[in-house]
Design a protein that fits this description.
heterodimer; A: alpha+beta; five-stranded antiparallel sheet; 15 helices; B: alpha/beta; five-stranded parallel sheet; globular
Chain lengths: ~625, ~150
């Protein structure tokens, strides 16, 4: 990521670069112009001097005799920047020169700065015309003019005069002048730069800096420095920014004020895990001052026994940046401790950075106390129930023993009555007339009824006394067994018995189910024996969650409005003389089914038989 | 000692109720029981037989024991008889009205040879008496003593 360059520096850099370019351009231009002018001037002089020297040499040679070239050559001495002047004959040897060393030498042997480039010489000889040319590399201006060949009749390459000028000095001079001129440019340019810089600074960058500082100060929570003013764009920006900042501060303060007004204790911790804000409710609850609450001070008001756990959960949540819930004892302003339910949520900034946690606590001391009370009441209740159960069990046992003994003690005299009344009828029939015999028979009937009643009562009470013994019962086997017990009676009345229970097995208390079936079959037989063809049908089938057994007869049936009564103990619908019974049978059926979590009910209509149902859970 | 003929050996009846006692006698009589009928009227009297047998008196063919007895409960008598060498092997038939599982279980646990219910109906009782006589006095081989 590149470091942002301050605008001011950028602007200055641009202006500076511009200035430098300008000066450089100016300098180059001037230098070039001066240099060119100087060269042009020198070239003109060279041309003139060269032509004149060539003509003079020519005239001297044409005049015949020994050419006096020296004076001509010496004339060139006054030329500015002249390095040397020389006459080179057609044999390439210097006949005369301003530098005596050159005379008699071949110029072409010389170093570059002492001889014109061969190209020029050839050109001159060829074109028979003067050439003035600069040799920038060698720092020379050469003027080479042809001199026609010596008139000795031979066609020889013409000679030439050569004037060599040094250009270095000229160039140095041009440089100095150009430099000087440029420097004159620099001063106003610098002033311009400085002026622009100051202007930019005061109007632009300073104010921008001010705006920056302004926003920065808000981010750091400092107080507001005066924003930028003015009518221009920056001023408007400054004004708008000030308004915005004001509303942000107000909203921030608003939320803080809002938090302060919340009735629950609220705390905030920064990303470094130290508490940096607590609301008024917190301070009021704990009775501390704000300085003590901040930082790590929150642990001080947590109950000593809960501190370790709280710290562990707190740190763990921070590590995972997960919400957390904590129950602990917080010191109340009266010095005691109240249980609180604290919930913390991680906070994130608008850019997704983790800022810390904010949490709120609820006083649950009341709840805890209520919980405790409930627990206490529950325990009391359980104890009471326990005591009652024990009492009840003892009572039950007493009742059982009572019922048992009573039944047996009631039976004993019955045996006596039955026995003697039988003997009476048998052994003393002669002593009894018909009425007497009737009386005795009635006595015996009464005894039989009483015996049955006692048996049924015993059976009923036994139902409760016996422990349930669940086992898998094969219905077909059980029904067959019960029918076998009644085989003689059923056979006597030619009752038709249909059994369709298939291979169904049920999970039931064997004794209880057998008793229920026995009673239902007894009833079915009892109430259908006067039918033309007494028919008893027993079937069973599984349903979704239960097994249903049906005992159906084609007997006298009953009105459904008595349905519930018939299952009550000692309730009878028929007269004893018509149909003997104790009124306990169906009560036993119902109780037996109830004990097995099943149920019993019936469907019937007077004169249309009855169907009794037994249902057992699977 | 020579074995007495089966018909000479007694049946011991342990029964407290006078009506039951009388009716039982009559029932056995109507079923033509030949064996003499010994009676113990309560649990203690029943226990008193043990020394008599020790002394050499003839052991009963079978003991018919009611459970609801005064002084000593029937089950106690059963335990005593079954733990005493002289009376151990005497067949004991519990003859009672109690159908209670506990009584039946305990009786067998103590060594009862049989458990029969006394019906209220006299006619049925006579049938039961007949069966008892047939089985225990005629069919069953009594233990050999000597």
């Amino acid at each position: 990521m590149s470091v942002p360059v301050p605008l001011r520096h950028l602007l200055l850099a641009v202006l500076g670069a511009f200035g430098v370019l300008l000066v450089a351009g100016q300098f180059t231009f001037i230098l070039h112009t001066y240099s060119q002018d100087a060269m042009d001037g020198l070239a003109a002089i060279a041309r003139h001097a060269g032509g004149t020297l060539a003509a003079g040499v020519n005239a001297e040679l044409a005049a015949g005799g020994e050419p006096h070239l020296q004076p001509l050559i010496l004339q060139t001495a006054s030329l500015p920047d002249l390095a040397f002047a020389a006459y080179v004959a057609s044999d390439d040897r210097v006949r005369d020169a301003s530098v005596p060393d050159l005379i008699g030498t071949a110029l072409s042997d010389r170093a570059a700065h002492l001889a014109p480039p061969a190209g020029i010489v050839d050109e001159v000889r060829r074109a028979q015309r003067g050439v003035v040319r600069r040799d920038a590399a060698g720092g020379r201006l050469w003027a080479v003019f042809p001199v026609p060949a010596v008139a000795d009749g031979e066609r020889a390459p013409p000679g030439y005069v050569v004037l060599g000028f040094g250009t270095a000095a000229l160039e140095r001079a041009a440089l100095h002048r150009a430099f000087g001129q440029s420097m004159i440019m620099v001063a106003p340019l610098l002033l311009l730069l400085a002026g622009v810089a100051m202007l930019v600074r005061s109007l632009l960058t300073d104010r921008v800096e001010q705006l920056l500082a302004y926003t920065r100060s808000q981010a750091e929570g400092g107080r507001l420095p005066p924003p930028v003013t003015g009518g221009d764009e920056l001023g408007q920006l400054g004004a708008r920014l000030a308004v915005l900042m004001q509303s942000v501060i107000e909203s921030r303060d608003y939320h803080v004020r809002l938090l302060d007004r919340m009735p629950n204790p609220i705390w905030r911790a920064g990303s470094e895990r130290r508490c940096d804000y607590v609301n008024q409710a917190w301070l009021a609850f704990t009775g501390t001052r704000v300085e003590r609450a901040l930082g790590a001070g929150w642990l001080d008001v947590v109950h000593a026994d809960d501190r370790e756990r709280c710290l562990a959960v707190y740190q763990g949540a921070f590590d995972a940046r997960e919400p957390f819930t904590l129950e602990y004892r917080l010191r109340f302003r009266d010095g005691g401790y109240h249980w609180v339910h604290d919930h913390g949520e991680p906070l994130y900034g608008g850019d997704g950075s983790f800022l810390g946690y904010i949490g709120s606590a609820f006083d649950v001391q009341g709840d805890k106390e209520a919980e405790e009370e409930i627990r206490r009441l529950n325990t009391e209740l359980e104890e009471r129930v326990e005591r009652r159960t024990v009492q009840l069990a003892a009572l039950n046992r007493e009742l059982e023993t009572f019922t048992y003994s009573v039944s047996h003690d009631l039976k004993a005299p019955l045996r006596g009555i039955d026995g003697y009344s039988h003997l009476l009828l048998e052994d003393h029939a002669r002593a009894l007339d018909d009425e007497g015999k009737l009386f005795v028979r009635n006595i015996r009937a009464g005894v039989a009824q009483m015996a049955r009643l006692i048996d049924d009562l015993l059976a009923y009470s036994r139902l409760e006394r016996r422990a349930l013994q669940r086992s898998v019962v094969n219905l077909a086997d059980m029904v067959r067994a019960v029918l076998a017990e009644r085989a003689s009676e059923l056979g006597a009345e030619n009752a038709e018995v249909d059994v369709a229970v298939g291979g169904i097995t049920v999970n039931a208390d064997r004794e209880g189910l057998a008793q229920a079936l026995r009673n239902l079959i007894d009833n079915a037989f009892k109430y259908s024996r006067h039918a033309a063809q007494p028919t008893i049908r027993i079937d069973a089938h599984h349903e979704a969650a239960v097994t249903r057994i049906r005992v159906q007869d084609n007997g006298i049936g009953f009105d459904m409005k008595f349905h519930d009564r018939i299952f009550d103990i000692f309730q009878r619908l028929q007269r004893a003389e018509d149909y003997a019974g104790t009124g306990v049978g169906l009560a036993i059926v119902r109780k037996a089914m109830q004990r097995m979590d099943g149920r019993a009910w019936a469907e019937s209509a007077p004169g249309e038989g009855a169907t009794f149902f037994l249902e057992l859970p699977r | 000692m020579t074995e007495a003929l089966p018909t000479a050996r007694p049946i011991l009846l342990v029964e407290d109720n006078p009506a039951d006692l009388d009716l039982t006698r009559r029932a056995f009589a109507r079923r033509h029981l030949l064996n003499p009928l010994l009676v113990a009227r309560d649990g203690q009297e029943a226990l008193d037989f043990i020394p008599r047998w020790e002394a050499g008196e003839a052991l009963p063919l079978v003991v018919l024991l009611d459970l609801k007895l005064p002084k000593v409960h029937g089950l106690e008598v059963l335990r005593a008889y079954k733990s005493h060498p002289v009376s151990q092997s005497v067949p004991m038939v519990v003859l009672t009205t109690s159908e209670e599982d506990a009584d039946v279980a305990e009786a067998y646990r103590l060594g009862a040879n049989s458990y029969i219910l006394k019906p209220v109906d006299f006619e049925k009782f006579m049938v039961v008496a007949g069966h008892i006589e047939l089985y225990w006095c005629a069919l069953n081989q009594p233990p050999r003593h000597g």
